[in-house]
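#dry-run=false #mode=assembly
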Amino acid sequence: MGSTYGENIRLTIFGQSHSPAIGMTLEGIPAGEKVDFEALEAFLKRRAPGQNAYSTARKEADKPEFLCGFTENVTCGTPITAIIRNTDTRSQDYENLKTVPRPGHADYTANVKYNGYQDAAGGGHFSGRLTAPLCIAGGICKQLLMKEGIRVIARIAAIGGVKDQGELTEAVTGKDFPVMDDIQGAKMQERIAEAKADGDSVGGIIDCAVLGLPAGIGDPMFSGMENRIAKIVFGIPAVKGLEFGEGFRAAEMLGSENNDRFTVADGAVKTETNHCGGILGGITNGMPVAFAVAIKPTPSIAKPQQSVDLSTMEVTELVIKGRHDPCIVPRAVPVVEAAAAIAVYDALLARRKETGR
Amino acid sequence: MGSTYGENIRLTIFGQSHSPAIGMTLEGIPAGEKVDFEALEAFLKRRAPGQNAYSTARKEADKPEFLCGFTENVTCGTPITAIIRNTDTRSQDYENLKTVPRPGHADYTANVKYNGYQDAAGGGHFSGRLTAPLCIAGGICKQLLMKEGIRVIARIAAIGGVKDQGELTEAVTGKDFPVMDDIQGAKMQERIAEAKADGDSVGGIIDCAVLGLPAGIGDPMFSGMENRIAKIVFGIPAVKGLEFGEGFRAAEMLGSENNDRFTVADGAVKTETNHCGGILGGITNGMPVAFAVAIKPTPSIAKPQQSVDLSTMEVTELVIKGRHDPCIVPRAVPVVEAAAAIAVYDALLARRKETGR
Amino acid sequence: MGSTYGENIRLTIFGQSHSPAIGMTLEGIPAGEKVDFEALEAFLKRRAPGQNAYSTARKEADKPEFLCGFTENVTCGTPITAIIRNTDTRSQDYENLKTVPRPGHADYTANVKYNGYQDAAGGGHFSGRLTAPLCIAGGICKQLLMKEGIRVIARIAAIGGVKDQGELTEAVTGKDFPVMDDIQGAKMQERIAEAKADGDSVGGIIDCAVLGLPAGIGDPMFSGMENRIAKIVFGIPAVKGLEFGEGFRAAEMLGSENNDRFTVADGAVKTETNHCGGILGGITNGMPVAFAVAIKPTPSIAKPQQSVDLSTMEVTELVIKGRHDPCIVPRAVPVVEAAAAIAVYDALLARRKETGR
Amino acid sequence: MGSTYGENIRLTIFGQSHSPAIGMTLEGIPAGEKVDFEALEAFLKRRAPGQNAYSTARKEADKPEFLCGFTENVTCGTPITAIIRNTDTRSQDYENLKTVPRPGHADYTANVKYNGYQDAAGGGHFSGRLTAPLCIAGGICKQLLMKEGIRVIARIAAIGGVKDQGELTEAVTGKDFPVMDDIQGAKMQERIAEAKADGDSVGGIIDCAVLGLPAGIGDPMFSGMENRIAKIVFGIPAVKGLEFGEGFRAAEMLGSENNDRFTVADGAVKTETNHCGGILGGITNGMPVAFAVAIKPTPSIAKPQQSVDLSTMEVTELVIKGRHDPCIVPRAVPVVEAAAAIAVYDALLARRKETGR
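#status=ok
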């Protein structure tokens, strides 16, 4: 039962890559919130496939149909459900996967877990396609956060070892290839093109920041902002690492270097640096919440790979058909933003219980 | 409400550093499980302070009193509660913290969140001392896992930039300073001694592995093994990063390098490498579950630090009194093991719903 | 966030009476379970409107479309979502309800809760129509229970003061008007006809029994079988009372009368009577789980009623248009069965964590 | 895992009748709330045994020790834990219960559920003694509600068929034997004395009302006020029935009788009657929330009873030793108040997420 997230809102994601539809239900959004559906579709388009050289050729509009939760475009307080029909499916591409699992994918582990009854076509419920409903929920949460002056931004920090330069700022917003330094961005795209030409794939790192979040958001121990973000971010396929602020670099620093000095600016408590990524004791300190996510290279590659035929228990060579991204990092950027927005909005509602009367 | 963890067991941790007691309640452990209390105390001792040069001089037996949940030393199926009395407290050491927050600690964020009503003494509920009840729960879960042939091991992978050498194996078990290469361990201890002499502190990295876990454990999306481990591990104070298998290194690899080839060994499906850290699609694949945790340097240091007096909103210099670890990494090793054991045992119970009849 | 139920399965119900669709998502059903969709539709038909004199004339096929969760008709382990399109809606019938709430309905309370943003048409999310998705989930659970020899049956115990005679047995199954004594059933139908002719409505009582449930199901305190059944049954609109076994009659009995004597039959522990309704300490004792539910008379009646115009805060007379059941008790019988099946199946999965290995 | 309650606060109850201690943890109470511990102890005393002719002679102070969650007597925002030591235990009274279950108790069902490993002494976790920690949590919530003008009151509505007269009002507060009509109260006490003299026991009904609760509290479907109250109230041992407003009487009424007419009083929407018990669609309408609870006669009676020896599977006669209440209804009155206060306070916090900013 892993397809549900949230303590104060509750998001449920359903669907398989090749089932009639995929979708999401989002409970707990207060009544009376206007949603800009055009802006939402523009956000979803950032994740949609088929738009450029480095994403899969599978073409689907990813246009959500909202089944309930609104009167016109205003929330009515009850669960919001939206679905996306699966149309451009080619299940025949996946016929061999039921018995020969793809390395790096969930085919084998799903086979064990579901005792052979898994829906293997296109990765089933484990497909990256299921990040589309995550983006519906996240897109709504982003809009609600924006009304309170909270912005979620993200960029490609690295692809295949090529690193972006400079700090993440809102200047990245609206870019097709979201990096701060476009020259580095061009190199990253070359890196992807090389891997594609080679029948291979590359991974990368995404930086995300939440700006404008007040201090005091998050709970101690297992519902700190780190825990909340981690629980949703590791739900994005291919994420294998997560760090806040200096993260793994902090392990090499002295306390005197890593501690952020408190100061006063504009009458408010601030820190001079932000090594802690805006979170102390699981609770926001008013500085930007900053984290980085490691994305592994797309496991689906054109090169033949060694696998095992589960029906015969013999080692075999697998050639993966179907259409795949040589690098999913660019399309994962809005997904990371969506995940962050959901986690932050949920924590904000938790905070209202303490402050609202 | 962050002090509770678990979907199939439910762990609640309570207490403040200087309240009469701290403790934990653990629900959902099946009846009829014998617990070896001596072994449990030996496990707790690995975390206890006051044992060597690199830990705080605060001396407390950390001996748990079990209030319920057992008949003799066998679980009776209902909630298990254990408490540890706080005895060696010196609240006067913390008198200045209510208005002058320590950099790197939760003092300021707790002040905002709790509107000035936080228990500031010793860090309150945010104190590292609260990892003692986590270890009670984790020590019990470790014993239960052991009965099913599942072992949780961990080592110090790095301190202040000094790295351990070699792969993590069970040979590390029982070592006072748990590293594979004792020469590197000696260097790490020097590094700690230097920092201490300098009134400073250092951080580090802990590697953890879960051995003997069958394939098929974990749920898709937000309750995958990564999400489960992340939700509890980020509840350990000072953890700022987490990666599974190759983690951030995977971001620089090609798909053909990072994918683990399936093979057959002893009649079972295995992978030739374990870049994925034993988890695909959130579900175990039968290889060791392997992850690394970044621990920031202890924020409490002897050096004077810049902070803000919240009562006057003026920048001030803070000198932290009290007794503190120049490096908490060694004491955090059993805590990481405890966290992993709890997460894994919870996921194992989830699995029983699918397979048991 | 009340539209979700379950600890070991998770049911989410979404939709409004006049939104594009209503539906449900059911998580946690193990993979490999075959569902008989024809039998499921036959079950749903028992609840569907427009079939006889005592139900609303609103005609809708209530045919669910399954969007995911299956490969063919076998569960694949991931969330099951089904929707029902709303087709025969007449929102114009409800135009006056946004400002003049219907007595006995949720119109006024929803208006307060959602600050005027509620979907008032047809009762929105509070409509009895939302019991259709409950029956989809319940119908699936009934089939899964049946495979383990567990049957859920229910009957009309009383309508408008006319009582059924005799004990509830499986002989009631398949009856159009589910009573044990058809003569009493005919009187009940007369009672409904009278109320209808009078522009009024009547309530009643439904008896439900779960047969074949082994001893040992349920948890102490707040997750006992009574609590579990209560939490879902009070989610059925119009339910205002619930009792187990003798229920309110036990309040007038002596301990020596009410206690069920233990005995041995067929080598198993049984009780000679079943005053406790098959539950002791929240846990099943192997006798039938038996409970009764009080259903209030349909609040929508043809007679003019006194209400308040919320836009002017003046008392006014309300005439309810639309099509309504003079008695919802007959259609509520399968809904109560569905609710019981969901609660019992959820508790059964909880039990597996204790017994399965 | 049934010993936890709450969505926005989280109450966990732990302990067995004869374990070293029993207690509770309450999470989610906002920081800065002053608790009057003397008033709390006075409230607990209403439930405590050994005070009069109709309660058990077991004498325990039931004085809670607070382990954490406060600085002085003000909440600090983190979990509150209180324990009560078990002192006056006589386990030898219960030696025969492990193999010969008491009729009407959880002995047999606990034996099955926990596979023989249950703590049988004094009923273990199923003992009525565990309502003491429920009253600690409920007493705190009552105080917090009182600050917002919300009062929870309850009375004995009937014992052994003898009924109280008149409507429940706050005049009942402070009475030793809480009935509106003391003459009826005297008859009830006679009824209890008769049963006691006869080695028997009697049950009864408790009425509870929550006054001053604003409209708009509660959520649709499974988290309506009825569901929330039901989930906790059925956690009180011996409760077998629950009804709201007219409850089972509504099943015999016409819609035109049962519907409460809306009117305007003091500029606010009110209803002329309160047949619905203050709840429509699961949400409060601003009238008193009113419910009644059926309590079965104490199952422990002095008369010999038929049971089964589980070690031999032979029918046997059981004589229950130990000290027991001939009627638990009087002591259950504050327990029902506590349960209602917890459920209402939890729902109030949920409401803050919608209204607070």
